[in-house]
Design a protein that fits this description.
Elements lengths: L3 E15 L3 E12 L4 E6 L6 E10 L3 H16 L1 H4 L3 H15 L3 H11 L14 H15 L4 H7 L13 E7 L29 H12 L15 E2 L1 E7 L2 E7 L3 E6 L2 E4 L9 H9 L20 E2 L21 E6 L4 E7 L1 H4 L4 H12 L10 H12 L14 E8 L18 E5 L1
Parallel strand pairs: 5-14
Antiparallel strand pairs: 1-2, 2-14, 3-4, 4-6, 4-7, 5-13, 5-15, 6-11, 7-8, 8-12, 9-10, 9-13, 14-15
Membrane topology: Lipid-anchor
Pfam family, one: PP2C
Subunit structure: Interacts with NOL3; may dephosphorylate NOL3.
């Protein structure tokens, strides 16, 4: 069964709450995965003018995702560019700042504690008889010949609870069915980088073989794993200030806005085989295998953590094989924008952007008595809808699911700026 349970854990942790200006509904479900690896932030009062919503889709362990959820909000506020009102640059700076912390001794110790791992590796057992060792190795090789790459990663990942990039389903649906009449007019644009592909120098044949073996070595296969080096997380962060929606994304998660029921992508999925990503990976000395994985490991090309792939000392952080540098998009909100969805690839592998928008839109409607469903109820239905009936397929619908919903109450002020009134409409935020 690999990284899956024999039966899905469909027990949901759900709650509803809020304040005078908005209501919340939250639900989380482990699903088929043997552990929960995603995290999120839902902070409608990030500061007096700004709201923050985010999703972190952990892989190789939950520790980096949980660390980001705990510390990234404050790191964003600490950036000088944030204090200067340059939100796009602030998000870029914050992503790189928290990523750089993953290599410090203090943070590594905290990640180890979050992961619940022993501080020291247990001594390896020795086999006394050479014949017994040969027999055991032969049996092991025979068994591994029929195993999938995911099962091999689990075996050589120190019996970790999840395979590398066992993507958690995390989604944020933020209702924007209001129109802020005034607000800060911040000029922001899209951000992306393209690195020119460079040929690597040729050397002796033996050196090339050794280099290739090193490149194709997967995190943890040397018998040792370190949080932040062998684990990481995608990150999608949305800031709402006045009429401006600023979305930063690193990884293969996605942000979508509903505009009068039409899905509008607010982020770009970072896949290793894409032209921009492939050029950067090759320039950093890496390669992408036929199955779309960086050096045969990660099947995404940007993430926080994963410093095993960030060891080229001649290149800056944003040019490493796996980069934490986010792409940033900005949208000026108006009454045509209904809600926003932020989700990891597990959701989008089940439903398209438009299908998710349709699913949420239909359930946001009032019933014949003029009532609306509790937000946590809508989220729970979405989780159940995305859950696969079994694990016999390609893994679609077999990941963790977490959801947090927010409804902007009628007649109250815009959460991004208390001086801005809303039209008589209901807003909703869902985080899965």
């Amino acid at each position: 069964m690999g990284a899956y349970l024999s039966q899905p854990n469909t027990t949901k942790t759900s709650s509803d709450g809020g304040n005078s200006s908005m209501s919340y509904g939250f639900s989380a479900m482990q699903g088929w995965r043997v552990s929960m690896e995603d995290a999120h932030n839902c902070i409608p009062e990030f500061d007096e003018e700004t709201a923050m919503f985010s999703v972190y889709d952990g892989h190789g362990g939950e520790e980096v995702a949980l660390y980001c959820s705990k510390y990234l909000p404050d790191i964003i506020k600490e950036q000088k560019t944030y204090k200067d009102g340059k939100l796009q640059k602030a998000l870029e700076d914050a992503f790189l700042a928290i990523d750089s912390r993953m290599t410090t001794e203090e943070v590594i110790k905290e990640l180890v504690q979050i992961a619940g791992r022993p501080t020291e590796e247990p001594p390896a057992e020795k086999v006394s008889e050479e014949d017994d060792l040969d027999t055991e190795e032969a049996a092991l090789l025979h068994e591994e010949a029929t195993m999938t790459i995911e099962e091999l990663l689990v075996r050589y990942g120190q019996n970790r609870n999840a395979v590398k990039h066992a993507a958690a389903l995390s989604i944020v649906i933020i209702a924007l069915s209001f129109f802020c009449q005034d607000g800060s007019e911040e000029e922001e644009g899209d951000s992306s980088e393209l690195e020119e592909e460079e040929d690597t120098e040729e050397g002796e044949e033996d050196s090339e073989d050794e280099e290739e073996e090193e490149e194709m070595c997967l995190p943890g296969m040397d018998g040792k794993e370190e949080p932040g080096s062998d684990s990481g997380t995608t990150a999608v962060v949305a800031l709402i200030r006045g009429k401006q929606l600023i979305v930063a994304n690193a990884g293969d998660s996605r942000c979508v806005v509903s505009e009068r029921g039409k899905a509008v992508d607010m982020s770009y999925d970072h896949k290793p085989e894409d032209e921009v990503e492939l050029a950067r990976i090759k320039n950093a000395g890496g390669k992408v295998t036929m199955d779309g994985r960086v050096n045969g490991g990660l099947n995404l090309s940007r993430a926080i953590g994963d410093h095993f792939y960030k060891r080229n000392k001649t290149l800056p952080p944003e040019e490493q094989m796996i980069s934490a540098m986010p792409d940033v998009k900005v949208l000026t909100l108006n009454e045509d924008h209904d809600f926003m969805v932020i989700a990891c690839d597990g959701i989008w592998n089940v439903l398209s952007s438009q299908e998710v928008v349709d699913f949420i839109s239909e359930r946001m409607k009032q019933d014949q008595n003029g009532k609306t469903r509790p937000l946590s109820s809508i989220v729970e239905e979405l989780l159940d809808h995305c859950l696969a009936p079994d694990t016999s397929g390609d893994g679609t619908g077999c990941d963790n699911m977490t959801c947090n919903c927010k409804r902007t109450n009628r007649g109250h002020y815009c959460p991004a700026n208390p001086k801005l009134k809303l039209h008589d409409a209901v807003g909703m935020n869902v985080l899965v």
